[in-house]
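Bumping my old thread because nobody answered last time. Still need a sequence for this structure:
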């Protein structure tokens, strides 16, 4: 559908010119640009992460400075704004990084999807147990 819509915008003709102008006006809105970028990149996909809740749970991790380097290990990643969350028996298997810029902690699967989100440790061990082995 996205490819078909894009190819229609490249056709010549007065009808398409009007559509391109309208589309150009829509692209002036940041929310529209973000929506289209998410659609084209696949970042609009959301997955069921079980009992974990939060606006980012099941979504691709937000674009954070240094995230690419932090995820190179292919290990689970706990982004903790407070530096106080305890991964319990998963400590040897989860990379924990203090990120004070975040207003919520995030547990990322190796594919960078958010498996858990919270401001306290509530539900963190459950999410770790669901997605990762401790031994």
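Sorry it took so long. Here it is:
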């Amino acid at each position: 559908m996205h490819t078909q819509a894009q190819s229609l915008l490249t056709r010549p003709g007065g009808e398409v010119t009007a559509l391109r102008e309208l589309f150009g006006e829509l692209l002036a809105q940041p929310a529209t640009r973000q929506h289209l970028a998410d659609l084209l990149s696949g970042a609009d996909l959301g997955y069921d992460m079980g009992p974990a809740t939060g606006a980012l749970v099941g979504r691709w991790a937000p674009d954070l400075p240094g995230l690419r380097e932090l995820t190179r290990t292919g290990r689970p990643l706990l982004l903790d704004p407070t530096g106080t969350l305890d991964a319990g028996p998963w400590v040897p298997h989860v990379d924990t990084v203090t990120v004070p810029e975040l207003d919520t902690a995030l547990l990322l699967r190796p594919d960078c999807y958010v498996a858990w989100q919270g401001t306290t440790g509530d539900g963190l061990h459950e999410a770790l147990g669901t997605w990762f082995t401790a031994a």
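The mean pLDDT is 88. Let me know if any region looks off to you.
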